[in-house]
Amino acid sequence: MNMQEPQLQTFSERLLKVIQTQTEIAKLGLDLGGVMDLVANRAQTLTGAVGAVVELAEGEDMVYRAAAGIAESSLGMRLSRGASLSGHCVAAGAPLRCDDSETDPRVDRAACRAVGLRSMIVVPLKHHESVVGVLKVMSRIPHGFGDDDLHLLDLMSGLIAAAMYHAAKYETNELFYQATHDALTGLPNRALFYDRLRHNLAQAHRESRRIGILNLDMDGLKPVNDHLGHRAGDAAIREFAERMKQLARAGDTVARVGGDEFAVILPRIEHREGAAAQAERLAQSLRFAFEFEQRPIALDASIGCAVYPDDGEDLTDLLEKADQAMYRMKRSKKAGAAG
Description:
- By secondary structure, this protein is an alpha+beta fold.
- The chain folds into 2 domains: about 5-180, Beta-Lactamase (2-Layer Sandwich), CATH 3.30.450; about 190-339, Alpha-Beta Plaits.
- It contains 11 helices and 12 strands.
- The strands form 3 sheets. The chain has a 6-stranded antiparallel β-sheet with strand order 3-2-1-6-5-4, sandwiched between helices.
- The chain is globular.
- It starts with a helix and ends with a helix.
């Protein structure tokens, strides 16, 4: 009995974390993408996993719509439903556990070896009695998860299911929209941005053409929140997003990828100057103040640019290049202000 008490205490503490997560989810309201991100991160932490994913079943694919840990760089990735443990979970409508990918015939062994995974758990996500996806955790060692982990993951999947119900009470199409769009601005969220970027990169590779990626960071949002409150900050974010949408060209993807971070995919550009010109047009549009409750609020943005294939061919490398360029602009603005 004494040998089991530490384990029971640990499990009890983990259950309290699940309850705390439920409270945080309530604060997110109808932001289903935010809920899935939160649950993926908590699922990884609570099970001691190296990565966690929320995958939604879309057509014949399982799509990574939220990811944490080592799976984060795979956000937006698509896997065949018929060749993955996640797809089997959707078909069965019940939790599945793989204790060793080297001996389990249900998994793609080569894919598991590529990322160094040896075991995983997947539990179904249900929306109105239909299985619409899975919550998955991953380990680098065989038999990395026990029955307690499976039980906890099942509880976590229930939190997502509840959020799905409130975000989209009837239509499955509405559910996928809520899961892939930012609740505050209506823009594509980070998961959909990654999905579209992967698609655009593959298409650009086939057609031997360039695409541009812009990374934008709102300047001065924190002082707005601190001095005028979060309602003013939310209004600034919405205004920022609206101006970006108005300036976007047909085929461009404008996304909100974080609190004050936005990104744009420019799918067809002839050269780097085309991406730079669009970045400058955005900068000009975003530079003007707007009025909120009879108070002027200044807007501005630091923008970084990367071009495929000039700056690289890998998604992660390109995003890093755009991020670095954005931070260089932000530093130069601060240096100019100080001078």
